[in-house]
Amino acid sequence: MPVSFTTDRMLNFGDCDISGTAYYPSYLNLLNGVIEEFWTSIGFPWHEIIWKERWGTPTVHLTCNFSKPSFFGDRLTFRLTVTRVGRSSVTIEHTVHCGAEARWSGHQVLAASRLDEHTSMVWPEPVKAKLESFLAPG
């Protein structure tokens, strides 16, 4: 069983349309915050790797499936599961729930990138090892 990173986000007024329903671009902004929190939790906060080390993790692929609407005031639980660690990319599956009810899911690929050259790079070994620690054994 893979190790997952889980965190909660409140669906705020500004995340919703006039009917109080979650606005999908806001979902992606929330997801980006979850990704940033994940990197901080594994010891590679964006403010350090971007400003000091000059590398980043841009999204190179993202698909989302929205199964049920979410509403202003809902507390959403984001579960991030690493499913593949490549030479210079990581594949992540996302599930988003409100209580026991699934709301949406996503499949995302992030790439390691040198920010000054705008080229891919091999994961630094400590980063790769930490990402691999999230994979299912075997």
UniProtKB/TrEMBL annotation:
SUPFAM superfamilies to which the protein is assigned, alphabetical: Thioesterase/thiol ester dehydrase-isomerase
Superkingdom per UniProt: Bacteria
InterPro entries in alphabetical order: HotDog_dom_sf (IPR029069)
The protein, known as: Acyl-CoA thioesterase
